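Technical annex B. To support the medicinal chemistry partners, we prepared a structural model of the target in complex with protoporphyrin IX containing MG, based solely on the information shown next.
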Amino acid sequence: MVLNAEDRRLLQASVGKLDCRFEELGGDALNRLLIVYPRTKTYFSHFNLTPGSKDILHQGEKVAKALESALKHVDNIRGELCQLSDLHAYNLRVDPVNFQMLTKCFHVVLACHLRGEYNACTYLAWDKFMEQVSEVLSEKYR
Ligand code: HEG
């Protein structure tokens, strides 16, 4: 799905309305992912998986920083996430369905931080964006 001009505007505007730093959303989303979809823990067996652990927050921050850079380059998400795409496909071998699960958790986190600002159009813009990121991170599989 293509991000049109209005989607891009809504993405940028909603980042500006967050009541926290963008990087903090990642830890929150990853915490939720591991609780709501416990099978995702298999990818992080070397982590301290206690909710809110430093491992989880640090990893979440890395994810959020990657999302932030993709947001700054929405015209070239593929180029921006090229190395991460290789990493997830060839090294980590994360099953693509996990990206959808993380996206769902990310929506909940955005809704918590944006409250009334998170309307249907803003939701759709984020959903398209996350779909593009997920596509890029899983397209090099097999
Ligand atoms: Mg991935 C590492 C981004 C989904 C499992 N992920 C990373 C890193 C980044 C990143 C930036 C660090 C890379 C590095 O250190 O060089 N991940 C990222 C994004 C998204 C995503 C942007 C989707 C929006 N990752 C994702 C999902 C899973 C997963 C859904 C599995 C459920 N990622 C994963 C693992 C690592 C990374 C196991 C390595 C963690 C480690 O050992 O430090």
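Notes passed to the chemistry partners:
The pocket of protoporphyrin IX containing MG is lined by residues 40, 43-44, 59, 62-63, 66-67, 84, 87-88, 92, 94, 98-99, 102, 133, 137 (CB under 6 Å).
The chain has one domain: 5-141.
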